[in-house]
Structure formats: structure tokens, C-alpha cells
Amino acid sequence: MERLALLSLRLEEDVERANSILEQANQIVVLTGAGVSAESGIPTFRGRGGLWRSRRPEELATPEAFEESPELVWEWYQWRRRLIAECSPNAGHQALARLALKKDGVTLITQNVDGLHSRAAQTEAKALNILDAQAAFPLEVHGAINRDRCSLCDRLTDAVSHFQLGPPQCNDCGGPLRPDVVWFGESLDPIIIGAAQEAALRADVCLVVGTSALVHPAAGLPSMTLRAGGLLIEVNLEATTLTNQAAVSLQGRSASLLPRVIKA
Ligand code: OAD
Q1: Which of 15, 103, 227, 264 has the fewest CB atoms within 10 Å, i.e. the most exposed one?
Q2: Which homologous superfamily is 1-41+88-142+187-264 in?
Q3: What's the CA gap between 247 and 245, in Å, rounded?
Q4: Between residues 34 and 1, the one the model is more confident about
Q5: Distance from residue 214's CA to the centre of ligand 1 (Å)
């Protein structure tokens, strides 16, 4: 009992410390991963029940897989789209959106393709009577699942919600459409990752939420802030390779911790 009380006191102190570091910072970069959407009901990749625990990425998330069996790849992405459509942003997304809308110098970066940060940005901006939600839209370094891209001409379109006659085709050139996400072996959009790296370099603080920090180059962003003299705050259910380098490491669920770390 005494140990539990001590632990919760320590967590409370760490939350306060993280809060005061964020309040004093002029430039903040936030990097999120699948864990931030876990409490919205979207499975992570590597944790318990994670997508890569039961499926092989090479069979579903590579250009080679798409070339070999576009039907199978599309089936998986349509399943994920349906799952995501049924989920809503949680209190963690909302707290981050409020931070970005109310404080100058905040850049949100996400590895997630689920669009939940943008949905939270819109609802929070409305609640705060802010006309432009732009400041809380994240740099989506791994793309967006609700967008299609032609694999021949690169034309972007809103996602085709259902199709029965096989994989969809581009209306312009007839090329095979694919989800506009980054697959293993592919490069990230240089403009988006470039903007993320610039933000990481100029940040006083990097807040890293719900990522195993294993997939590069996104996983290298916190180290860029550290090397440039900034601080790291981590929110995660468990320890990661970043934990030892963090000024504050908060172990727990992001939907309950973030609203406490980011007070009004
Ligand atoms: P992972 O599945 O690798 O890691 C999720 C992290 O979230 C783990 O460290 C968990 O401990 C943590 N976590 C789980 N639930 C949490 C919660 N409720 N609150 C806080 N933390 C929680 O996901 P990512 O690091 O995002 O890439 O994976 C990175 C990339 O690998 C993804 O963007 C995807 C994947 O393959 C592409 O699709 C290109």
C-alpha cells in the first residue's frame, strides 16, 4: 500500500515537472505513434495484440506485396479503414490539439495514418472558437490511410470507400490506385520529413508519445532535439530505447496522462 502511494506521488511529481517544462518552452515538437490511438480502439503494431504480431509486414505493406497480390493488400487496408472509421479521437489527441491551437511554436508530427489528430484539431478548434485548425494538423510522415494515390501518375484522391470489381484504378491514367501510406522499403516524402527534422532541431522540448521509436527516420527525431540541446519528455506504457535519455519519463496510458501534462 505504502509503495503504491509512493509510486503515485512520484508520477504526480513527474507530471508536474513535464507540465512546467512544456509551459516554459518556446518551441515544442510532439512525435506520436500508434500508442496514442490505442485507447481509441486502433491496434498498435508491435505491442500485445499488435498488427505485426499476427501478420507479416512484407506480405501487406511493401510495394512488392502490392505488385504480387493487390487484392490481398487492398483487403487489409479496407479492413483498417473500416476499423478506423468506427473510432474517435481520445482525450490524448484532444489535449495535443489544444496545446497546438493555444500555444505558439508547437509542431505535431505523427507516424500514424489514422487521421485522428486532424479530427481532434477540427473539433477542438470549434470548441475554442478558433476558425483555422491548421496549427493542430500534424505532419503525417507515414501518409494518410484515407487518401488514395495512383501508383503511376501520383494523383491523390479521397479514399474509394468500397469496390467490388477488384482494386480501384486512377480516373486520369488508369493506373492502379494504392493507399497513400509509406510502405517498408519506400522513402518518406522529403518535404514532410524535412519539415519534421527542422522542427525537431529547433525544439526546446520533444514530447514523444506512444511509439516504440524503432522505425527510422521518424524514430531519429527525438535524438535530433537532444543533440541540439533540447529536452525529451516521454509518455509510454513501457520503457523504450528513449527512456534513459528522457528528462521526464511518464509510464502509463496517453489518454489519461496527456490531459494532465497539458493543463488548459
Ligand atoms: P509500435 O506498435 O511499434 O509501438 C507502439 C508503442 O505505443 C509501444 O511502445 C507501446 O508501449 C506504446 N503504447 C501502447 N498503448 C499505449 C497507450 N495507451 N499509451 C501510451 N503508449 C502506449 O507503433 P509505432 O512506434 O507507431 O509504419 O510504429 C512505428 C511504425 O511502424 C508505424 O508508423 C508503422 C509501423 O510499421 C508504417 O506503416 C510505415
Answers
A1: 264
A2: TPP-binding domain (3.40.50.1220)
A3: 7
A4: 34
A5: 9
Q: Under 8 Å CB-to-CB from 70, ≥6 apart: which residues?
A: 166, 167, 176, 178
DSSP secondary structure letter of residue 169: B
Nearest-atom index, ligand 1, CA of 182: 39
**pLDDT tens track for 128-149:** 999 999 999 999 999 999 999 9
Pocket of ligand 1 (CB under 6 A): 33-35, 38-39, 44-47, 50, 61, 111, 142, 182, 210-212, 214-215, 235-238, 240, 253-254
Q: What is the pTM of this model?
A: 0.96
Q: CA 121, CA 144: separation in Å to the nearest integer?
A: 15
The 10 Å Cβ neighbour count of residue 184 is 13
